[in-house]
Design goal:
113 residues, alpha+beta, Alpha-Beta Plaits, four-stranded antiparallel β-sheet, two-stranded antiparallel ribbon, 3 helices, Dimeric_a/b-barrel, monooxygenase activity, monooxygenase, Antibiotic biosynthesis monooxygenase, ABM_dom
């Protein structure tokens, strides 16, 4: 079984309400997508025009299957207006290698630890 992955989409917009409304619309369309465990919209406390959308996928294979699918581009197109490419890429793809709950109980450990 492969590890969960998280996709981080960096967004920037002076109008936070536009990003928030678009996030809700896209998330509603993504409901029930195979392999998608959930997503969150984060807004910077220090730079309120900056946002991150974090989606969690059951595996890299599940994410890539959705990404190659026909619905991917059309569903996520509204968020492209807000892409923040100031860091080189508007998104990052990360494999979860370890995780803890708030009480220091491991939720997941990589095989190398």
């Amino acid at each position: 079984m492969s590890a969960r992955v998280r996709v981080l989409l960096y967004a920037v917009a002076p109008d936070g309400e536009a990003v928030t409304a678009t996030y809700h619309r896209v998330s509603t369309e993504l409901a029930g997508t195979a392999g998608l465990l959930g997503n969150e919209l984060l807004r910077s406390v220090y730079e309120p025009e900056r946002f991150i959308v974090i989606s969690e996928w059951e595996s890299l294979d599940a994410f890539r299957a959705w990404e190659r699918g026909s619905a991917h581009r059309a569903t996520t197109a509204p968020l492209r207006d807000f892409h923040d490419t100031s860091r080189g890429s508007a998104f990052g793809l990360y494999e979860v290698t370890a995780a803890y709950r708030g009480d220091d109980v491991p939720l997941q450990r990589s095989s190398s630890t």
